[in-house]
Amino acid sequence: MRRTTKYPVSGANSLWQIYKTVSFWKVIKNFIVIQIGRYTPFLPLKNWLYRTFLHMEIGEKTALALMVMPDIMFPEKIKVGRNSVIGYNTTLLAHEYLIDEYRLGDVVIGNEVMIGANSTILPGVVIGDRAVVAAGTVVHKDVPAGSFVAGNPMRIIYTKEEMEKRKGHSNK
């Protein structure tokens, strides 16, 4: 189960009421910073922009590839550990706007995590240290540390123990 907080709305759908939930000016600022960052090939500059202006937590030597799309409304709810790779065109969402409610949840990505291109990370999930997320995966629940996951819906392909055996690092 994802860790999200639900906020009910009445009347028009929650996205129609967006500026009751987040400042218009915050969204404009975030949009500009994210668009600069998405096209910036200089990783230290991109990480500095996101840490400074979006208040994202990004560990040392972490690489957000070209076109990665952090949550535009609540990027401060995203935390990425050290030495991780977030693949091309991946989306990191910390919000969901639905008909009768909206939901917010932290996204926590551990250390030395590899997320393949074109993946979508939904709000309220934790991806454990040294996990691998295959390209195109929709991460809708927690990913255990050291595991390999893939698909839509996401499923565990190899556990940490199976991954260690495959790499020849069995700890018997």
Tell me what the structure shows.
- It comes from Thermaerobacillus caldiproteolyticus.
- Keywords: Repeat, Transferase.
- InterPro entries: Hexapep, Hexapep_transf_CS, Trans_hexapeptide_repeat, Trimer_LpxA-like_sf.
- It holds the Pfam family Hexapep.
- One of its GO terms (molecular function) is transferase activity.
- Helices cover 23% and strands 27% of the residues.
- It has 172 residues and is an alpha/beta fold.
- The chain has a single domain, classed as Hexapeptide repeat proteins (UDP N-Acetylglucosamine Acyltransferase, domain 1, 3 Solenoid).
- A six-stranded mixed sheet has the order 3-6-11-14-16-17. Strands 2-5-10-13 form a four-stranded parallel sheet, covered by helices on one side.
- Strand 8 and strand 9 form a beta hairpin.
- Helix 2 packs antiparallel against helix 3 (43-54).
- The mean pLDDT is 95.
Q: Main traits of this protein?
A:
UDP N-Acetylglucosamine Acyltransferase, domain 1; four-stranded parallel sheet; 172 residues; globular
Structure described in brief:
The chain has a single domain, classed as Hexapeptide repeat proteins (UDP N-Acetylglucosamine Acyltransferase, domain 1, 3 Solenoid). The chain is built from four helices and 17 strands.
Largest beta-sheet characterization: 6 strands, mixed
Q: What's the N-to-C terminus distance? A: 32 Å
H and E string: EHHHEEEEEEEEEEEEEEEEH
Name the helicity range. Answer: 10-25%
CATH fold category name: UDP N-Acetylglucosamine Acyltransferase, domain 1
CATH class: Mainly Beta
What would CATH call the architecture? 3 Solenoid
Point out poorly predicted stretches.
none
Number of strands: 17
What kind of oligomer do you see? single chain
Query: Given the C-alpha coordinates, what overall shape results?
Result: globular
How many DSSP H or I helices?
A: 4
